[in-house]
Specification:
Layout: H1 3-9, H2 15-26, H3 36-49, E1 59-66, H4 81-92, H5 96-104, E2 107-114, E3 125-127, H6 145-164, E4 169-175, H7 180-190, H8 195-198, H9 207-224, H10 231-238, H11 241-255, E5 259-262, H12 265-277, E6 285-287, H13 294-303, H14 319-337, H15 341-344
Parallel strand pairs: 1-2, 1-4, 2-3, 4-5, 5-6
Helix pairs in contact: 1-11, 2-3, 3-14, 5-14, 6-10, 6-11, 7-9, 7-10, 7-12, 10-12, 11-12
Length: 350
């Protein structure tokens, strides 16, 4: 997939479609704008789909799994092998994302984008490994520019596959022990921000572990000297394969007029890279929740964005996105099913 062409195709949402959506929302039997963010979501979804009676035709969660060489620096409370074990759990249907996706009526697709240990073919597993884990970002580039571009292309490919199967809402998910470290480095590079402001405890580091992790991110940023306006360089130097693929899913989804529900901290790092490639992609992104990771709130404040939920989540996998899918669907139902004042024979203000 030519991801650069895809990124360049993305256009801001039509003002005419947004006006059409808001005109209907303002005519529904309620005080004007009284459903707050729910109405804004409905308006954006209507403009994304460019349909007078928009509907959600299908939902899918793409969980991109990859491993990280930086775990050699003791930045995670869990060993790298847990990535493989958790992917097996996803495929067996026993993980948090499986439970929440079933409740949301969403299919779960697990994409091996760069696990250190590959798995045999299995239902629900998509084999797209770019390389068997990234390099140690403190000592070397996490990947080559070609690796990063290939991973972005996989994300674009998944968006195309979703549309072919009638999906109108895709969600991002991730799995990869150690991936909060490259995510923090990406946020620090692309916002930009100081390492200590965007680096959190991840899987549960103690104070000493957190201080060490901040030091690793700080030294990695000094080593690579990344420019804030170079998202592909940042992904290659300090990112992860799953973040690059999430970036591609955001770009591909926006280009194909799909709504993209972004999960938490790791997914937002990939989404930020997509936003730096083409700011118009932001119109198509629904940020599901604010993670416990402190850098996530810094990201939202810096970009002027508002997450849908704030539930102290930090699991990843796409769990927050699966929850937010319910709310997005509720917003679309309000838009389509709630009576207007004319329908109800009510004169507003009478």
């Amino acid at each position: 997939m030519d991801w650069r062409e895809t990124a360049n195709r993305i256009q801001p949402l039509s003002r005419e479609w947004l006006e059409t959506a808001w005109n209907r929302l303002d005519d529904l039997t309620k005080p004007k704008r009284s459903l707050g963010l729910l109405e804004e979501m409905a308006a954006r979804y209507t403009a994304i789909r460019e349909e007078t009676s928009p509907c959600i035709t299908g939902k899918a969660v793409y969980v991109f799994a990859g491993d990280h060489g930086v775990v050699a620096e003791d930045v995670s409370a869990y060993p790298q092998e847990v990535t493989t074990h958790m992917v097996r759990n996803f495929l067996a249907g026993g993980a948090g994302i499986n439970v929440l996706a079933r409740a949301a009526g969403a299919d779960v697709h697990v994409v091996d984008i760069g696990m250190a240990q590959g798995l045999p073919d299995a239902p629900g597993l998509i084999q797209r490994s770019v390389r068997r884990g990234t390099g140690n970002l403190l000592r070397e580039s996490a990947m080559t520019l070609e690796d990063a571009e290939t991973a972005i292309g996989v994300g674009v490919e998944m968006a195309h596959a979703a549309r072919v199967h009638g999906v109108s809402v895709v969600a991002t998910g991730d799995m990869g022990i150690g991936n909060t470290t490259p995510s923090s480095a990406l946020f620090a590079s692309l916002l930009p921000a100081a390492a200590e402001d965007v680096t959190g405890r991840g899987t549960g580091l103690d104070d000493a572990g957190l201080a060490h992790k901040i030091d690793v991110v700080t030294r990695a940023l000094e080593h690579h000297d990344i420019k804030a306006d170079d998202p592909i360089g940042a992904l290659a130097a300090v990112g992860g394969l799953e973040m690059a693929a999430i970036c591609g899913l955001c770009l591909g989804g926006a280009a194909l007029r799909l709504a993209v529900v972004v999960d938490g901290f790791i997914s937002s790092a990939g989404a930020l890279a997509a936003m730096r490639f083409n700011p118009a992609v932001t119109d198509y992104l629904f940020f599901s929740h604010c993670s416990v990771e402190k850098g996530h709130r810094v990201f939202f404040e810096n970009e002027g964005l508002r997450p849908i939920l704030d539930l102290d989540l930090r699991l990843g996998e796409g769990t927050g996105a699966a929850l937010a899918m319910h709310i997005l669907e509720d917003s679309v139902r309000i838009y389509n099913e709630m009576a207007t004042f004319a329908d109800a024979g009510i004169q507003p203000g009478a």
